[in-house]
Amino acid sequence: MRRFAPVGSGLVLALSAGLTAHAQAPSTFPAPSPLGRTLPTFSASGDPAAVSPEAPEPAGVLRLSDALGAALLGNPDLAAQSFEVRTGEAQILQAGQRPNPTLSTQVEDIVGTGSFSRAGESETTIQLGQLIELGGKRAARMRVASAAHQLTGWDYETLRIDVFSRTADAFIEVLAAQERLALADEALVVARRVLDVAQRRVDAGLASPAEAIRAGVAVDSAGVEREHADHGLETARTALAAQWGGATAHFDRALGDLADLPAPPTLEELQRRAAESPDLARWASELERHEAAIAEARSGRIPDVTIHAGPRYLAGPEDVTLVVGASIPIPLWNRNQGAIAEARARRAKAAHEQRAAQVRTATEVSKALTALHASIEEAALLRTRVLPGIDRAVAVLQRGYEAGRNSQLEMLEILSARLAAREQHLRALVEAHHSVQRLERLTGAPLQEDSP
Questions:
Q1: What is the pTM of this model?
Q2: DSSP string, 287-344
């Protein structure tokens, strides 16, 4: 019975020693931007099968910081992107793996003519083979994976800021909807008061029944507007709850002051902050990824070597010999020139896209700052001049109407004008806050240092 002695296997193991070890390329993960940096954020567990704890559902009186904290912990899109970061870590690990060795067996002279007609004349060769990557392929592969992982980190940070800004905008809409409902309630109370006065005037014979009918229509119209404002508030509450993954809102009311607006920095300061935002900072990693792809494509020009060695068991005296060999492709036609050209073209495209992103961001910052200044000025004008003037006019006309000196139409018109002015003031405040959030989203930093 033939015994297969492991002659030569030690040589193969020595040649492949250390080739199966894995390593992980260092990856510089992006640091969180100043916007919301102190708030806890969802982070995927290293074990995908582990159940992530659910973020607590906000209840009671809701402040902006409560809404932001709940969104950053419970937003499903942010949670999904967090697992994408884990995927990038696994890709770096896999990129560092070396090719596995191969085991091959070959039996020769099994059957033939003459002296080879007996099976005992066969020769058996057992070989271990190892592909040795040359040209820095493994290092280039790890560099590409590391750059891609860093980009994933920037994508996570960009989404984190998006969630922060969307939640703040949704919170503002809830505050505005609460104010609109309060205005609608007040308008309904005033319309009913006018109806009471009109009915007394009709009963006293001082006015025609048409005056009471007209006042009743105004009450009905105010009631419809009140219902519309109530539905608008419920819609805004649901949109806010969706930011932390809630199907419905469980908080009682949002607490905040829409009149509290930050003083905007200069355009130069905002442009400086925008240059450090994730939207623009990510392009350095994007270009690094393309540089790594070029290096990887260039490494493909160098052919890899496959070495193999093992024992050959001879027939007859059952002697054993050592077989050693190597193979290498000849780069005659394919020198990976197409892949290199493609990688270079993509690198050039990315450089132009970076410039386009810079111009686009600068334009958006300028537009948002202009809109913020316009909204602040409009709100200030309405608060200091228009609203006080209308309130004085309402007080005068109301006394005159009750005394019979002014008509009902004059009274209804001034009440409608006051409601429209208050709506305009509220709209200006809301637009100002949205402009603030737009600037914070573009810069990745709060306009005020003490902001969340």
A1: 0.84
A2: HHHHHHHHHHHHHTTSPPEEEEEEEEE-SSS--EEEEEEEE----SS--SHHHHHHHH
